[in-house]
Amino acid sequence: MHPLLAFEGKRIVITGAYSGIGAALLELLRESGADHVEVLDIREPEATVEAFIETDMGNPVSIDAAIATLNSEDAPPIDVLFNNAGIAATHAPDKVMRVNTLGLKRLTDRLMPDMKAGGAIVNTASIAGNGWPGHLSEITALLGIDSWDEGVAWVADQADLVADGYLFSKECIQVYTMRMAKRATELGVRINSVCPSPVDTPLLPEFRQTMTDQAIDWAIAAGAGRVATAEDQARVLLFLASDMAGYINGVNLIVDGGFGAAMQTGQAAFPT
Ligand SMILES: NC(=O)c1ccc[n+]([C@@H]2O[C@H](COP(=O)([O-])OP(=O)(O)OC[C@H]3O[C@@H](n4cnc5c(N)ncnc54)[C@H](O)[C@@H]3O)[C@@H](O)[C@H]2O)c1
């Protein structure tokens, strides 16, 4: 293993590691020497971890309790934070926004200042968030709100913009990643995101339900011609968290098997 890809001795926190991309990431981290992994999830992972903190990322009380546990006395600073937990629009829009955006922001805003210099944050966003430039001013307004209740109220007021919650929640994560990069630099850490196209995880059937089979199958066919595996995405999460990516900051890395490239160059029109 290249030493820049090694995670031995690093304190790693992952949200959403029970299944899918997060579970694949846990395996890869172990293969990369990780010996201190703490998981925040509503379900306890089957894989052995150094700590499981039952946490609902859509609930500020639960998130704050997890932060208190993570910051308990004698705990070493966190080296790596993976914000991976997420849900589909099979849930109500306000819940999608709470778990995918408001919870991620709350946890990160509060953990980042005490992270170890040289550390990294990696968010799991989505290509579903690529439309952020059309909503930058609104997203900037939401991300400027620190209060949980005010954030929830903002989401309720913007029902048309938020729509089913999923696309907008991921647009917010792409913008959050870019906005936080400057502050990260000042603290000596980095923040980036991975933006997957459809991935073969327990969430995929839910995306088929909310986005249609036609849209999902098109994104797969026009990209790599096969659906991404959880490991395809976990490898990139691991890379961005590693010292190998030491000069990458504020980047939303599209991991879509070439789908976006084909679209942008007019080689992948949506079937009519
Ligand atoms: N599967 C895809 O096609 C796809 C595409 C793009 C982005 N993503 C993103 O990848 C991330 C991982 O999803 P996945 O596809 O591996 O699906 P998954 O359902 O297997 O994983 C989601 C994880 O989040 C946890 N979780 C769910 N609700 C939670 C909550 N309230 N609090 C804490 N943890 C919670 C789940 O228990 C699970 O471990 C998500 O952020 C998702 O939006 C997935």
Overall description:
It is a single chain. The protein has 272 residues and is an alpha/beta fold. The chain has one domain (3-263): Rossmann fold, CATH 3.40.50.720. Helices cover 45% and strands 12% of the residues. It has 11 helices and 7 strands. It has a 7-stranded parallel beta sheet with strand order 3-2-1-4-5-6-7, sandwiched between helices. Helix 1 links the parallel strand 1 and strand 2 (37-41). Helix 3 (93-111) packs antiparallel against helix 5 and helix 4 (136-143) packs across helix 7 (166-187). The longest helix is centred in the middle third of the chain and has 22 residues, at 166-187. The radius of gyration is 18 Å and the shape is globular. The relative contact order is 0.15. The mean pLDDT is 97. Nicotinamide-adenine-dinucleotide binds at residues 15-22, 41-43, 55-58, 84-87, 99, 124, 126, 196, 198-199, 201-204, 207, 230.
Helix and strand arrangement:
Elements: E1 12-15, H1 20-31, E2 37-41, E3 51-54, H2 60-70, E4 80-83, H3 93-111, E5 120-124, H4 136-143, H5 148-157, H6 159-162, H7 166-187, E6 190-196, H8 204-211, H9 213-222, H10 230-241, E7 252-255, H11 259-264
Parallel strand pairs: 1-2, 1-4, 2-3, 4-5, 5-6, 6-7
The chain binds nicotinamide-adenine-dinucleotide (NAD).
